């Protein structure tokens, strides 16, 4: 692994050693949010300890469009706590352990990485308007998989045209044989976490495209 020349960080989850940012193509499990990662990570060279780049540097308090009314607080859930229920991420519906964001008032919990999902994305099947990431109690049909967008599930939506696509279906190759991101490596998409990271890449590409047009 080659270190990236950035200053090492200190993290509350690993107080005794500093962590250095590395880039490597191997997979790891983040010791912060306990989900898979690939590529960049903060690593302790003395221990087997890794953090996603974002989990290593995300703020203690976050305001996010995913939960507009309250700011979210970074909390750590100990693995052997005395608890009744598994916590679920309100955005991706996977279980939550370790490091996550929470609104205590609303019991809204979200993985740090899920807060990086882009608020708007464009899709080749609906070039007229950008789609906006929303959760809604209204039941709709996903344009891609024709499945139901269930109550309270997150979807990218154009409210003007009643056009909905599941968060995960945004990356499916559609009729026109083209997604916005030229993803050639299917294996890369097998993992849900990676697919969600791709949505972020997609948004970055859109921003670059828009820059070019100016
Ligand atoms: Zn993480
Ligand atoms: Zn260490
Ligand atoms: Zn999540
Ligand atoms: Zn709240
Ligand atoms: Zn779908
Ligand atoms: Zn529209």
As for the number of domains, it is 3
- Rg (CA only): 18 Å
Sketch the major β-sheet: 5 strands, antiparallel
Q: What is the typical, i.e. mean, pLDDT?
A: 83
Straight-line distance between termini: 39 Å
Which small molecules are bound? Answer: zinc ion
Strand content: 25-35%
Low-confidence stretches: 175-190
Topology summary:
Elements: E1 2-3, E2 9-11, E3 14-23, E4 27-29, E5 36-38, E6 41-44, E7 49-52, H1 53-57, E8 61-62, E9 72-77, E10 98-103, E11 108-110, E12 120-123, E13 126-135, E14 140-141, E15 148-149, E16 154-158, E17 163-166, H2 192-213
Antiparallel strand pairs: 1-3, 2-3, 3-6, 4-5, 6-7, 8-9, 9-10, 10-11, 12-13, 13-16, 14-15, 16-17
How would you describe the overall organization of this protein?
The chain has 214 residues and is mostly beta strands. The chain folds into 3 domains: 2-57, Wheat Germ Agglutinin (Isolectin 2), domain 1 (2-Layer Sandwich); 61-115, no CATH class; 117-213, no CATH class. Helix content is 13%, strand content 34%. It contains 2 helices and 17 strands. Strands 1, 2, 3, 6 and 7 form a 5-stranded antiparallel sheet that branches. The chain has a 4-stranded antiparallel sheet with strand order 8-9-10-11, with no helix packed on it. A 4-stranded antiparallel sheet has the order 12-13-16-17. It is globular, with a radius of gyration of 18 Å. The structure holds zinc ion (6 copies). Residues 67, 69-70, 103, 105-106, 108 line the site of one zinc ion.
């Amino acid at each position: 692994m080659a270190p990236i020349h950035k200053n090492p960080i200190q993290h509350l989850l690993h107080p005794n050693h500093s962590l250095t940012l590395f880039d490597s193509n191997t997979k790891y499990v983040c010791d912060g949010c306990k989900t898979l990662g690939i590529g960049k990570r903060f690593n302790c060279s003395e221990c087997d300890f890794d953090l996603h780049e974002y989990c290593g540097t995300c703020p203690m308090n976050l305001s996010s469009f995913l939960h507009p009314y309250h700011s979210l607080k970074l909390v750590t859930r100990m693995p052997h706590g005395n608890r009744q229920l598994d916590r679920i991420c309100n955005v991706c519906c996977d279980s939550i352990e370790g490091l996550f964001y929470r609104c205590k008032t609303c019991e809204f919990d979200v993985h740090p990485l899920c807060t990086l999902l882009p608020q708007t994305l464009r899709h080749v099947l609906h070039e007229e308007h950008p789609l906006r990431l929303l959760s809604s109690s209204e039941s709709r049909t996903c344009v891609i998989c024709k499945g139901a967008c269930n109550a309270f599930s997150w979807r990218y939506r154009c409210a003007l045209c009643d056009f909905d696509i599941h968060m995960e279906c945004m990356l499916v190759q559609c009729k026109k044989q083209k997604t916005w991101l030229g993803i050639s490596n299917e294996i890369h998409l097998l993992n849900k976490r990676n697919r969600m990271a791709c949505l972020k890449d997609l948004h970055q590409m859109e921003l670059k495209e828009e820059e070019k047009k100016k």
